Amino acid sequence: MDISAKEISILKPIFDGIRDKDEPYKIVWIPIVEHWTDDMQAKFEMLQSNMPWYILQPFPPTVDIQVMKNEYCSLKNKPIVVVINPQGEVEHPNALRMIRLFGMKAFPFTAEAKKAIMPEGLRLQFRANVSMKESGPRQDDKNYTFKCYGIANTLEAEFTHHLNIISRYLASNSDPDIRINMNLIEQSNSTGRVVLCKGTHGEIVVGDQGTKILNVLENFEQWKADVNDFGFDHSFMLCYRRL
Q: Which of 16, 27, 98, 126 has the greatest number of beta carbons closer than 10 A?
């Protein structure tokens, strides 16, 4: 039953979108609980109050819970969105990441829809408000530098903290070849600016006053799983555009 308010907010536009479809698509929440307690009941009621869709009750017996845990053991209590057709066949084992990235554009959230929408997702970064150099490093250059111009000490500390977390995660869970660097550049009479650059030639990915870029880093949990599919800079920009 570990679903966050953020994940519920991501699914609400999907709920509204499928209601406009002629076909009878429905969202059903199945909370998986091994040991039901008063605290779990209170949490369930709180979550239920924020969900406009159907909720399955009573809860599955222990044997069904064990089957689900065996099937999705790698998810470690993370919420999933299983897409099932009217014949009871699984069309997609977990469409949550697809929904996070593309929303209703990926409807009906099948494997075929994912293949169709993926090229568009890769093009999204080029539609962002991004300044790019015509000449730059090869696409496989995996060095990224956050250049911080005259930012406040508090902002510097926040960037250092989150970049350390991201670097450790990438080294052990994603692509160990990715290198994340931070370059502090002192500037007097400056309001501060942060620029994310890629490669040894400093190809600019995006730049702003620093707060929105920091917000992307703070939300790394939402896009870290996409790095393997899209690359660091593509995944970063997909999140940047959504904020």
A: 98
Token digits of residue 196: 């994310």
Residues of the chain with CATH 3.40.30.10: 5-115
Residue 128 has pLDDT above 60, yes or no: no
Judged by DSSP in three states, 166 sits in helix
**Which two three-digit tokens encode residue 207?**
């730049």
Tokens 């009941």 belong to: 41
Alpha carbons 59 and 117: distance in angstroms, whole number: 35
Do 102 and 192 contact (CB within 8 A), yes or no? Answer: no
Residue 233 predicted with pLDDT over 50: yes
Give Cα separations from 205 to 21, 165, 198 (angstroms). 38, 21, 7
Whether the predicted model's global pTM rises above the 0.70 cut: no
The answer to whether 56 and 68 have CB atoms below 8 angstroms apart is no
Q: Which class is domain 127-242?
A: alpha beta
> Which CATH superfamily, name and number, covers 5-115?
Glutaredoxin (3.40.30.10)
CA distance 176 to 168: 9
Give the span between the Cα atoms of 239 and 243, in whole angstroms.
7
Determine the length of the chain: 243
